[in-house]
Amino acid sequence: MEREVPVPHVLIFPFPLQGHMNSMLKLAELLCPAYFYITFLNSDHNHKRLLRFTDAEARFRRWPKFRFETITDGLQADDPRSIELIFEMFEASESIIRALFRDLVISLSRPQQETPPLSCIIADGIIPFAIDVADEFKIPIISFRTVSACSFWAYFCIPKLIAAGELPFQGDMDVLIKCVPGMEGFLRRRDLPSFCRPEEFNGPVFQSVLRLTQETTRASGFILNSFEDLEGPILSEIRSHLPNLYAIGPLHAQSGFASNSLWEVDRSCMTWLDSRPSNSVVYVSFGSLAVVKRETLLEFWYGLVRSEKHFLWVVRPDSITGGVVNPEIPVVLLEGTKERGCIVGWAPQEEVLAHPAVGGFLTHSGWNSTLESIYAGVPMICWPCLADQQTNSRFVSEVWRVGVDMKDTCERGTVEKMLKDVMEKRKEELMGSVDKLAKLARSSIGEGGSSRSNLDRLIQDIRSKTPSCP
């Protein structure tokens, strides 16, 4: 009698933030065609929003071996989902969330009629208890960090920076950092992850990220949403500590324009873009987490209007301190927006960046946004807000040379100047650089490309972790 071929059952567990959930759900879509059983563990809050604003439920229904499960994120339904608050709640509620996660792992590890026992966990690398639970039940676990390789490497080197006296620091933010191998010639204090700044150093988020980054070495594998031709030298540095590394990005480019948005998308902006000339529009979005003061928003607004460029601007309902913009908006801004602008609450970003009218992206430098912009061939104006974004923006401007970095500055004259630099003065130079990277990104996910090969290796390795049927 022939032995039945075992089918892997993978549990995927993202940290409960939009960018983390999005990239890990994209990974799930890539694993489904391998005919794995996949359980995707979402937070209750995010799952309700995902089902409300996207077709994710219908989209995954075509994969009968896929299913969603949910778990609390430790917050009340109406609490803001800022990264600081969620980290604090995860730490404060760890015993509760850990117990629920552990119970689910136990349940999934039992033979069931619907699914085989759990054979592998792919968990977000900043979930504090995932590796411990996996180790307890001797289930292989692969860590997925949804940040760039360059920012992860900066996180990983923090103990070395502390030992060398480069952290903590005070004073000149432009002093070069010497103890992050591969970045010695261009990484400054201001380019380190935001948690390293004096006001956040030794805070709860810093301590959590530091501890969890070091614990990544306990996982049996490590996934990054990147590709060799973009971050090859830094990937090599990481492999000296985490040899079983899978660089499989850009993930968004391998699953079409499927939306995993937790916000209601306003598609009217696509019709507006259709009426604009090629490469004439600056797309502006600071992602799903950034919150700005009214004064900051007005400085950006003045800069956009004074640049005399067409602009499509995403302003989330919760992105302004206090919740609303003062109704007394200067006439010059209202008139300038009426002539050349379009403001929406949320946009289909991948489609926007792929639109021929878009010629620049004023971005917070989140990693998903950075990859999407590179793949679409759109130069960036970077205004990083938190976490990994400071390091990403430095690589955009100084290493890949596909944009300019406005870090730590928000003044209308600077905004205007940098918009004109990207859309006029340096347009040809930046477009040439980003076009080259876009081609390399497409090659990486094509047949024989590095990311495709790494994805195939990941699938085979997961199969090899699946116990044979008795």
TrEMBL record:
The keyword Calcium does not apply. It comes from the Eukaryota. CDD domains: GT1_Gtf-like. Its EC number is 2.4.1.-. One of its GO terms (molecular function) is quercetin 3-O-glucosyltransferase activity. InterPro entries: UDP_glucos_trans, UDP_glycos_trans_CS. PROSITE patterns: UDPGT. Keywords: Glycosyltransferase, Transferase. It catalyses: 7-deoxyloganetate + UDP-alpha-D-glucose = 7-deoxyloganate + UDP + H(+). It is an enzyme of class 2 (transferase). Belongs to the UDP-glycosyltransferase family. This is Glycosyltransferase. It comes from Protea cynaroides.
